């Protein structure tokens, strides 16, 4: 006996009345001692494990459907099905079942479905002893037939008997002939009765009847009967839709006639279920379970037949990627694939696995890459849907493809960059496509679904996570952040000023669609901060990304300002000292505090989010940030008393300062920590060490003094490029950027360049420390201290500190020269 004859799939019906695939194996019928009887055994073809062991019970009703299916119930809510690869195997097992139950193998159902209560209820009824007698199939009997069909629906036994009677007498075909007579005679009453009869027969839920009703010969007349619902004033025109409006498109001619017939049949039956039949009530929901199964098994068969025809699929792929293919044809090919992938969702996991592997082998990803870059919106949209099926199925497969591709092609045409560009260029005002693509990108860069083990075959000794993230940050990250950097650049600022943009805005995109796009990009970057550790850390510090993101705190779109704030909050939430030092040296709390002060007394989400950020720093006691905030911004914030956050920060700061001073009393001065109250000299020593080190260890990770124990790869490779750019800008930016006017008394400048950040060289630069001291003509000691702090604080706003050899002279000039004194008012 050949293996394929006995090859079966085991299905069980779940609570949602959907069939679950339990596996593929080989079936046999043998006597099992433990069960004391002949049983059906299915052993898995993969490992020989037992998938099914079911005793053939003499009283169980087994049904044979569609020549290759055997269905039965083991318990009240436990339905099983065996789907055979070959009809011969199904017939063989069916004979064994009939033999045990003493039935003729020609029957389709081995038992009547009876339970005891039903048996008692109907034993007096004369028709239970034999099949139901059907009235003659004539026009004047239609009302009687309709009453009979609707009356049996409440009783399982009578439903069974009516189904057998209808089947044995070829009754359905006779009814459909009467339908044609009624329609010709315009006999509305008869047509209404036929609607009730055909609907009732569908609710009998019998696969054998469905096969007759949904055959090519009968299906259109069945649809015709269902047009004449008595509840409607005018009949529907379903047949007209199915024959004239719905067009069957063959992208490549399908030569297999059985496959064509299956596709037509499935479409029409799905139409009957979804469009024609009313939504079943709670009491009727199980009436159509067999109809759902009928469609389900049809779809499985269609996908399997197409998948096995590699010549057909190869031809589809060839035409899809051929430049000579015209746009209409290509649109149809892509829509075919979209439909094909949607059908594949009916497959069980292992079959779906095989399906997508077939597509991958044939080259679905390179084909998608070409199609996603096309101008036709419909084609791009369908290609995105197909891409989403592939990413959902196997992100690793997509990642492997793009990494291999990177070795042979430019960054511009990499699949992930094509996806990012589609996201950026989405023309939909609501960015529907961009949101979908952002979700797919997030799945692809999510380390949670990356293989943790080393991929020996491709990257000996390296994990998928490290390989893919290195690839992504080297080849794709610049494409993702391009719109963000372009919209927060100083060039953009200058252009905005030329066309007369709002001078009080440092740069923010006022266009709603751009703001939405930037919000999506920020959401993705925030995800990276949380999941990518040192890759994103290097990127943020090398590109000074947080400073650029915080420009968006000025946006008139509050949702965008909140996205920028959320990005910073996620960074601070990591409690990473490298990030904290980057924030304090860059003076990056400035734009956040400006936004809080600009927001005034409004009690809104922005207000709450900013306060939550500072509350987190207080509760978690992040000392370096606490010191920075209190030393530089406390005067501006002390008036905020409706929350205790800022007073709490001051208290924490003072407690820590006391602790430090107690410790320092017993420590030699050269070892003292300068973490809290730093004066200008101490800071300069730090700067000197930082940059001496930078010169000595060029190309290595730069680590500030006192942090040598941290892993080197945890910090940016080099700040040199960044500093060169800063110095170049220093000579260009003679004046600071335009200031926003503020209703509040306190206002800071959010500097974008080295000259703006250096308080000593910028006449417009403002600092809280300087503002809090009244400007007076006499050189009082309090003023001196205050101005010294001012220089220190504003110098700290550089990401890399520059060592100024003549710093001492500058300080003296600060004290004497009114030209260089920071001003209170703009």
Automatic annotation (TrEMBL):
GO CC annotation terms, alphabetical: nucleoplasm; protein phosphatase 4 complex
UniProt-listed GO biological process terms: DNA damage response
Any GO MF annotation of the entry: protein phosphatase activator activity
Pfam families: EVH1_PP4R3, PP4R3
InterPro entries per the UniProt record, alphabetical: ARM-type_fold (IPR016024), EVH1_PP4R3 (IPR055236), P4R3-like_central_dom (IPR006887), PH-like_dom_sf (IPR011993), PP4R3-like (IPR051137)
Residue ranges, compositional bias (Low complexity): 751-792
Listed Basic and acidic residues bias regions: 707-738
Serine/threonine-protein phosphatase 4 regulatory subunit 3-like central domain ranges (all copies): 144-655
Domain PP4R3 EVH1-like, first and last residues per copy: 5-101
Annotated region (Disordered), positions in chain: 686-826
Skewed-composition ranges (Acidic residues): 686-700, 804-815
PANTHER family: ATP SYNTHASE GAMMA-RELATED, SERINE_THREONINE-PROTEIN PHOSPHATASE 4 REGULATORY SUBUNIT 3B
Family under the similarity heading: Belongs to the SMEK family.
Name the UniProt record assigns to this protein: Serine/threonine-protein phosphatase 4 regulatory subunit 3B isoform X1
Organism listed in the record: Phascolarctos cinereus (Koala)
Protein's gene: PPP4R3B
């Amino acid at each position: 006996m050949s293996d394929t004859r006995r090859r079966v799939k085991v299905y069980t019906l779940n609570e949602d009345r959907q069939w679950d695939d339990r596996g593929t194996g080989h079936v046999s019928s043998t006597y099992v001692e433990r069960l004391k009887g002949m049983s059906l055994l299915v052993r898995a073809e993969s490992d020989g494990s037992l998938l099914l062991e079911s005793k053939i019970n003499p009283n169980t009703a087994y049904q044979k459907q569609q020549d290759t299916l055997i269905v039965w119930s083991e318990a009240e809510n436990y339905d099983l099905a065996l789907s055979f690869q070959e009809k011969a195997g199904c017939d063989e097992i069916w004979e064994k079942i009939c033999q045990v139950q003493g039935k003729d193998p020609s029957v389709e159902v081995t038992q009547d479905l009876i339970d005891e209560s039903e048996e008692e209820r109907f034993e007096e009824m004369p028709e239970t002893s034999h099949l139901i007698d059907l009235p003659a199939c004539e026009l004047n009997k239609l009302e009687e037939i309709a009453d009979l069909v609707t009356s049996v629906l409440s009783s399982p036994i009578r439903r069974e008997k009516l189904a057998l009677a209808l089947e044995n007498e070829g009754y359905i075909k006779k009814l459909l002939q009467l339908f044609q007579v009624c329609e010709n005679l315009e006999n509305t009453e008869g047509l209404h009765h036929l609607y009730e009869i055909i609907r009732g027969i569908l609710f009998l839920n019998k696969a054998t009847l469905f096969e007759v009703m949904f055959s090519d010969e009968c299906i259109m007349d069945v649809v015709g009967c269902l047009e004449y619902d008595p509840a409607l004033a005018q009949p529907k025109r379903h047949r007209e839709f199915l024959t004239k409006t719905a067009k069957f498109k063959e992208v490549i001619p399908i030569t297999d006639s059985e496959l064509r017939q299956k596709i037509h049949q499935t479409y029409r039956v799905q139409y009957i279920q979804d469009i024609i039949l009313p939504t079943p009530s709670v009491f009727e929901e199980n009436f159509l379970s067999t109809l759902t199964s009928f469609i389900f098994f049809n779809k499985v068969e269609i996908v399997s037949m197409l998948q096995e025809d590699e010549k057909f699929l190869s031809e589809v792929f060839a035409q899809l990627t051929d430049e000579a293919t015209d746009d209409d044809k290509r649109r149809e090919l892509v829509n075919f694939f979209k439909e094909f992938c949607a059908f594949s969702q009916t497959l069980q996991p292992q079959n779906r696995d095989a399906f997508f592997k077939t597509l991958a082998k044939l080259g679905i990803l390179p084909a998608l890459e070409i199609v996603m870059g096309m101008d036709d919106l419909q084609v791009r949209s369908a290609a995105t849907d197909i891409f989403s099926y592939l990413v959902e199925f196997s992100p690793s497969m997509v990642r492997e493809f793009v990494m291999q591709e990177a070795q042979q092609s430019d960054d511009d045409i990499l699949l992930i960059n094509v996806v990012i560009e589609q996201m950026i260029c989405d023309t939909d005002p609501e960015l529907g496509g961009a949101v979908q693509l952002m979700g797919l990108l997030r799945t692809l860069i999510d380390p949670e679904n990356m293989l943790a083990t080393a991929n020996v075959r491709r990257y000996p000794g390296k994990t998928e996570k490290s390989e893919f993230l290195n690839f992504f940050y080297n080849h794709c990250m610049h494409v993702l952040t391009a719109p963000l950097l372009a919209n927060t650049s100083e060039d953009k600022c200058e252009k905005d000023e030329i066309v007369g943009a709002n001078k009080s805005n440092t740069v923010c995109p006022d266009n709603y669609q751009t703001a939405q796009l930037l919000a999506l990009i920020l959401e993705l970057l925030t995800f990276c901060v949380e999941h990518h550790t040192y890759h994103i850390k290097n990127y943020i510090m090398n590109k000074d990304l947080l400073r650029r993101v915080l420009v968006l705190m000025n946006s008139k779109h509050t949702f965008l300002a909140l996205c920028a704030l959320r990005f910073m909050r996620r960074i601070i939430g990591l409690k990473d000292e490298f990030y904290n030092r980057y924030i304090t040296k860059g003076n990056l709390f400035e734009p956040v505090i400006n936004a809080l002060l600009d927001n005034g007394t409004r009690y809104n989400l922005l207000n709450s989010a900013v306060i939550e950020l500072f509350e987190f720093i207080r509760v978690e006691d992040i000392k370096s940030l606490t010191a920075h905030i209190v030393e530089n911004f406390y005067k501006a914030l002390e008036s905020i008393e409706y929350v205790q956050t800022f007073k709490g920060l001051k208290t924490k700061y003072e407690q820590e300062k006391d602790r430090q001073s107690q410790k320092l009393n017993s420590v030699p001065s050269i070892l003292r920590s300068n973490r809290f109250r730093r004066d200008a000299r101490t800071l300069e020593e730090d700067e000197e060490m930082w940059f001496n080190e930078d010169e000595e260890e060029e190309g290595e990770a730069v680590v500030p003094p006192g942090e040598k124990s941290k892993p080197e790869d945890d910090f940016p490779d080099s700040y040199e490029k960044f500093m060169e750019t800063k110095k170049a800008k220093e000579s260009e930016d003679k004046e600071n950027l335009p200031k926003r006017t503020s209703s509040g008394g306190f206002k800071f400048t959010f500097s974008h360049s080295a000259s703006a950040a250096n308080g000593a060289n910028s006449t417009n630069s403002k600092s809280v420390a300087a503002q809090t001291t009244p400007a007076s003509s006499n050189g009082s000691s309090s003023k001196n201290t205050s101005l010294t702090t001012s220089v220190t604080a504003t110098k700290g706003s550089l990401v890399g500190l520059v060592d100024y050899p003549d710093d001492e002279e500058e300080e003296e000039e600060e004290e004497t020269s009114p030209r260089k004194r920071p001003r209170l008012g703009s």
